[in-house]
Amino acid sequence: MRETRTLEFKETITNTFLKTVSAFSNYDGGSILFGIDDNGNVKGLPDIKQACLDIENKINDSISPQPNYTLEVQNNNQTIKLTVKSGIQKPYLYKSKAYKRNDTATIEVDTLEFSRLILEGKNIRFEELPCKDQELSFEILYSKLKESVQIETFNRDTLKTLNLYDNVNGYNNAGGLLADRNHFPGIDMVKFGESISIIQKRVTFENISILDVYEKAIAVFRDYYEYEVIQEADRKKVEKIPEAAFREAIANSLIYRVWDVESQIRVLMFDDRIEVVSPGGLPSGITVNEYLAGKLSALRNRNLANVFYRLGFVEIFGTGIIRIKQLYEESLAKPEFEVSENAIKVVLPIFENNFNLSEDEKAIYKVLSKTMLKSISEIAPYVPFGKSKTTQLLKSMGQKGVVIVEGKGRSTKYIKK
């Protein structure tokens, strides 16, 4: 047993645990085990009843507002488990300061994070705050709505219906993000050559409607990852990366990111993949596993999400990752998703047809994809087969058009097509 983001050990009862109570209440909850040393060994508490009273009194006297917690005696009356639930009256303060967990440590939140906790405690989103720009136009939004839902009249009432404007506060930040011109960041796109030292193109789309940002990003994508093949009298469009997957990644990065930081969404384009990095980790209340499995969707910017849904840019809230995975079902290379405290990265590889490869053939293909190995003697140590079977599998893959076979005998080389 070891400490984690949601589990802390305390061998004795001192005031230091109160910072962690604040952290658990402000975010995703957690447990503190008293009578356990830093290595997870049971040391026990001398007077279990008095220890429970001490914990209760310290919390009740020091944390404001009152957190939601329970106490449980464990290990034959030797230890105490304090379970703290995530609260709804944030921020929860200890000595007028709010705390959060950073891996296994408890630290004070910064000014920006403190402001977010205040808004969350009032059930207010950043996108719902009054926008500092109030002289706004919405020609792009009007055009998109006219095209997608055939509206003919566009006025203040339309903006009120979309929750972008009210008579008291005027335009909110969601309205500002959708306005033709604004003060918000956008997307920074870079196309690399053979290495990150070679930049073939760099373009930044900012201070414009995020609807325009979305369309411009897709246009750049098409320049590098789509082409046409002429077959007799027909033209066939070929997508090196599924456009629908890229659209999903960009739309989700725009509607799920945090907008209260001056940071661009980064789109890094390589010959074999695209990486989309969005500012802001997961919203409170959803775990990484739940996010990756598409089980839960916590809308950080619900008004923006509603507009994107009405325009058909996203299908159903919370299905983005599932949809991206489905688009790669027939590909050998699969998308990857990385979640950290302050960012989410989606990696979209070049689509590679699986050509009905067997599981053994797929194992060899993965080795060829990650290395420059070409001969049997170089490939065999990295696969769970002998050289004879590896040779047979590579020949089969050559017949399927997945592998190029060059040379004969011991000089034979195998190269991923």
**Global morphology:** flat
Portion in beta strands? 15-25%
Number of strands: 20
Radius of gyration: 27 Å
Based on secondary structure, the structural category is alpha+beta
Q: Order of strands side by side in the largest beta sheet? A: 12-11-15-16-18-17
In the CATH scheme, what's the topology name of the largest domain? Heat Shock Protein 90
Low-confidence stretches: none
Mean of residue pLDDT values: 91
Q: Could you give a short account of the major beta sheet?
A: 6 strands, mixed
Helix fraction bin: 25-40%
CATH architecture of the largest domain: 2-Layer Sandwich
Distinct helical segment count: 14
- Domain count, please report it: 4
Which class of the largest domain in CATH terms?
Alpha Beta
Characteristic terms for this protein:
single chain, alpha+beta, Methyltransferase, Cobalt-precorrin-4 Transmethylase, Domain 2, Heat Shock Protein 90, six-stranded mixed sheet, 14 helices, 20 strands, 23% strand, flat
Secondary-structure topology with pairs:
Elements: E1 7-10, H1 17-26, E2 30-34, H2 48-62, E3 63-64, E4 69-74, E5 79-84, E6 93-94, E7 97-102, E8 105-108, H3 111-121, H4 139-149, H5 156-161, E9 165-166, E10 170-171, H6 173-178, E11 187-192, E12 199-205, H7 210-225, E13 226-231, E14 234-239, H8 243-256, E15 265-269, E16 273-279, H9 288-293, H10 302-310, H11 320-327, E17 336-339, E18 343-349, H12 359-370, H13 376-379, H14 387-399, E19 403-406, E20 413-416
